[in-house]
Every structure is written in C-alpha cells, then in structure tokens.
Amino acid sequence: MAVLWLMLLLMPASCLLQTTQDPNSPIKNVRMDPEHKRLTWDLNGNVDQISCIEESRLPVQAKNNRYCSFELMSPCKVTNYTVTVTDPPFSTWILFPEPDGTPGAAAENLSCRVHDVDFLTCDWTVGRAAPQDVQYQLYVEDGTTLERRKCLHYKTDDRGTHVGCRFDDISRLSKYPHGLRFTVGGTSGAARVPCTDVFRYLSAIEKLTPPNITVTCNKTHSFMEWKMLSYFNHRFNYELQIQKSTEAAATETVKEHTSFTLLNTGAYTVRIRVREVFDELLSEWSAPQRFECDQEEDMHTRSLRTSLLAALGVLLALLLALLLCRRFSLMQKVLPPIPRMKNPIGDDFPSTLMPWEAGRADPEDCAVAEVQVVKET
Ligand SMILES: *[C@@H]1O[C@H](CO)[C@@H](O)[C@H](O)[C@H]1NC(C)=O
Ligand SMILES: *[C@@H]1O[C@H](CO)[C@@H](O)[C@H](O)[C@H]1NC(C)=O
Ligand SMILES: *[C@@H]1O[C@H](CO)[C@@H](O)[C@H](O)[C@H]1NC(C)=O
Ligand SMILES: *[C@@H]1O[C@H](CO)[C@@H](O)[C@H](O)[C@H]1NC(C)=O
Predict the structure, then answer these.
(1) 216 CA to centre of ligand 4 in angstroms
(2) Ligand 2 centroid vs 107 CA: distance in angstroms?
(3) For the Type I cytokine receptor cytokine-binding domain, which residue ranges apply (predicted)?
C-alpha cells in the first residue's frame, strides 16, 4: 500500500522527467533553480552547444554548457522551458512551476502603477474559478536584492476579498532603476490557489504628476517656474497651454527646463502637462491656474507708493517740527541778549535793533540767529 502511495506521489515528477530518463540522453535531470533563476541539468558524456528557449522567445546560449539564466522567470506562471543540444542532437523540456492548484482561482489582470509621486498601487480581479473564501496577499520583490515587502493597505470588494493594495512612500521601496516583481498569492480552505505575478520597472509604470506653477511677475514679464517631482524618472519636456483673456489658447513646449517667461501678460490661465523624454510617458493636464499679473502689480505698486508717500510726509513733518523746536530753544538761549547788544556786524546794519518778542518767529529772527552761529565758529 505504501509503495502504491509512493508511486502515485512520484508519478507527476517522473512523467515530467521521462524524456531525460533515457540513459543515453546527453543531459539529464533538467530543473529550475528558482533562487538563482537558473535552468540547470546534469551532463552525460561529451556534449556541445546547449541552448535554452523560454516558451516561444529567442534561444539563449547556456553558460559553460551547465545552465541558462532566466533573470525574469516567473515563479507563478506555468512556463515551458526547452533545452536543445546540437551535438549529439537532442531536445527536452520541463514546465516550471509545475501546474498546481486550481488555475482559475488565481488573481487575474494584475496591474500596478506609481502615482501622485509617492504611491504605488496594484489592482487585480478575483479569479473566475476562485472559491468563495479566497483571500489574496500582495508582496513585491526587488529584482536585484530579492528583498521582499508585504503590502499593507488593501482595498476589498463587497465580499471582503482583497482586490487592490497601496504602498505609501515608495521612495524607500526601490532607489535604483531596477525592476520589481509583484506577486499576488492566494489562500483558501477549499482549494490550492496559484499565485500571479508581473515584473515591472517603476520608471515605466509611473503615472506622472503635473507640477504646480509658481509665478513672479510685473507689468511686462511673467516668469513661471515649477518643480517636477518623481523618484523614478528624471528627464522631462513640458507643454504649457496658455490662455490670455483676449486671445486664443496657445501651446508652448519647454524642453528639459522648468521655467518659462511670458511677455505682455495681463491676466491669464495656464495648464501644464509633462512628457518623459525616453518612454514618452505623458501626464494628464494640470488643473488650470489663473494669474493676474499687471493688476496685482498695479495694486501692489499703488499701495506701496501711497504708503511710501505717507511715510515721507510724516518724516518731513517730524523734521520740520524738530527744526522749529531747535530754533526756538536756540533763539531762546541766544537771542535774549540781542536787544542789549551793540550792532556786531558793522555800521551798515541798522543801529536800532528790533526788540525780540518771545513767541514770534519772523524771517528777520532767523537771519540774526544764523549770523550769531557763523560768528561763534
Ligand atoms: C514545451 O515546448 C516543446 C517545444 O519547445 C513542446 O514540444 C512541448 O510539447 C511543450 N510542452 C508543453 C506542456 O506545452
Ligand atoms: C482581464 O484582461 C483581459 C485581457 O486584457 C480581459 O479580456 C478580461 O476581461 C479581463 N478580466 C477581468 C476579470 O477584468
Ligand atoms: C500642488 O499644490 C496643491 C495645492 O497647493 C497641492 O495639494 C499639491 O500636492 C501640489 N502638487 C505638487 C505636485 O506639488
Ligand atoms: C519685469 O521683470 C523683468 C524680468 O524680471 C525685467 O527684465 C523687466 O525690466 C521688468 N519690467 C518692469 C516694468 O519692471
């Protein structure tokens, strides 16, 4: 009985390997090493020129006749790998992973995108043949470091089945331009659920976010600038759609710069969209932003001028008051003796000096005071 069970258990494996069981076959025991992503085998005698084919792709040469590398091999999708030997002529194949579980139970149409600069979101649909109690989990694996991260923020359908997931703060997820493998695994009490996976470069799945425009302007020039944010793409061209109040909308292209100067502005509305240089990824148009250049400038300068003038007026008044005050005190100190003095200048001056009256500031008083000061120095 135990032997029968053992035979049953071994049957699928021996079925798969039957073509390499021939003792005369030049390669034996073809297998996938998922950790190193290598298709490998044992050599049997002198063998020359081995190549491998993944499904219907182009053949790849084996390294040292020992293995073929499949960096992008899928751990979920059942794939046919064929190994061909030129001399002696021989060919065999295996399926990896081996078909397992209910094929229609796996998540379908897995798609992922980077969006709003910081976020990575994947969506999928529940497999058509999935059992009622199926639940899905998403994780990503760095294509180079093989570091894995579980996704935490799930979206569920009305049955509570996960149908999407979001990573926040993806800048920590992958700093380098290599890709990520996204895998949705499934669990169920009723059936084995195969996994579903896709391999993607984050730069290629980014939905670019159009930047915000800030403007500095005066009556003749409007200087627009913006800051483009993306962790995975770095070279951009921009399109500006500018609508001045009286004219038809005009589209301007700005190549790999993040500013644009508009002449004779007045009020205008502008929208921007961004196109990545290599992959031509194109963002949506931004929401229109409205700028009122000369009006703002007018109001600004007018209020500035008014306040400047007011300040100048106050300053002048203060200065005048100060001068007057100082003159009064000076005159009070200097002038009282004047009526008793002899004419200090000379005989041309009238000899009858006016008596000084306190509280009156006549032009004559000023002249006298000035003469006194000059003489003292
Ligand atoms: C795998 O591919 C080989 C040809 O490359 C073909 O002969 C074989 O039938 C395929 N196996 C399956 C299960 O499709
Ligand atoms: C999945 O995608 C395929 C091809 O794009 C489409 O035909 C199918 O309807 C999609 N399935 C679901 C459940 O959305
Ligand atoms: C643009 O500005 C809006 C509102 O100030 C803000 O919510 C948004 O995050 C900004 N977008 C970018 C890309 O900076
Ligand atoms: C407006 O700004 C531009 C550039 O900043 C400058 O060249 C120009 O002279 C300014 N015009 C006025 C009227 O201030």
Answers:
(1) 10
(2) 11
(3) 109-198
